[in-house]
Amino acid sequence: MSEHTPFALPTFLAAQDKMRSFAPFAGHDYARLRNFDIPNHPHVSGLSPYLRHRMITEADVLKETLALHPPAQQEKFVQEVVWRTYWKGWLEMRPAVWTQYQTGLHAALNRIQTESALRQQWQSACEGTTGIDGFDHWAKELRQTGYLHNHARMWFASIWIFTLRLPWELGADFFLRHLLDGDPASNTLSWRWVGGIQTEGKAYLASRNNIAQFTKGRFAPNGLIESAQPLAFTPHPEPAPLPAATKPTANARTLFLITEEDLSPEWVLNGAPAPYLIATLNSTKARSPLHISNDLSAWTDAAMTDCLARHGWSEAIKLQGAPDLAEVVKAQNIGQIVTSYLPIGPARATLSAANLDTPLVQVMRAYDRRWWPHATHGFFRFRKIIPQILESLA
Predict the structure, then answer these.
(1) Is the torsion defined by CA of 337, 338, 344, 345 positive or negative?
(2) How many CA atoms lie within 13 A of 124 on its CB side?
(3) How far apart are CA 313 and CA 98, in angstroms?
(4) Which of 33, 38, 116, 342 has the most CB atoms around its CB within 10 Å?
(5) What digits encode the pLDDT tens for the residues 181-222?
(6) At the fourth CATH level, which superfamily is domain 102-214?
(7) Per CATH, which fold does 254-363 belong to?
(8) Residue 330: CB partners within 8 Å, gap ≥ 6?
(9) What is the pTM for the complete model shown?
């Protein structure tokens, strides 16, 4: 990694320590203080990089907090955890929305090649040289640490879209290229939400007073747009069913593939044939057509190395892209690839780019298969099942 200090250490032990140290504060303290963006972010859990890579899971975190707080006291924290479940399920059943984002991103990238004023504005926003108080700090913080407080992400996205008038897809891409917790579902749909596309017609506008209040006066930007029309949107696609469950073939020569989508993957091997070969696939480069942060790539590599070390998989092969995977499958005469389910995003895109004839068996976690299908409408409806989720984990 570079000289920058990442927001989270890329190890399972660090994830466990952070989860257990924060759990006592996931009740009233979190509900009262979670919206304050202050240095070192003491009032939020910092678990998102680990949840994104499933070094720990939503179920792990919910169980940990359930053991210390009654549901009423941890309601706000539980909702924040469950938002990830909701976003993942919502996008998984509407893959066309991810395709729309990618189409919009490519169109915006074409524009910055031909529109010099737009290109300069975009570069200034990414480099944190706009002169907008707070916004420039957050751009630099993101590049240096791979993290932003959730409230700062909302302010940043709002200023990017409505004050700077930059394409929202370029902002979502900027986040994906730097965030340690950059998740295709949470990131894309949150940017859409700020722009008024996700919750149709209801945009989020950052305000000077709100920023000043929740940064305790650190930032109070002038000149923010005070009224704006939501971005143009198309109706949401109807949700499609999740794919049917699949099982590995008993006697096939198996490559067990570990991706950044699930770095606690030992459960996949329960009842599966012993793998002939184990490999990791780092597909962070597929997050964007542009350069991915070196710190992000290095963090992901280190997290994968930690996964292999704690399971004793010292003979695993480390793959960096589709050509590597295709070469290994052919050279080793692999009969099937077994992996944890690949949701919409870079890992799935990398597997598709490999263009393999070899059967791909994706095993979905029971938690996802049970709760993702409920993400059919808005979060208000989804959160009504939170008591059921908690009861199933108790």
Answers:
(1) negative
(2) 14
(3) 34
(4) 342
(5) 999 999 999 999 999 999 988 999 999 999 999 999 999 999
(6) DNA Cyclobutane Dipyrimidine Photolyase, subunit A, domain 3 (1.10.579.10)
(7) Rossmann fold (3.40.50)
(8) none
(9) 0.95
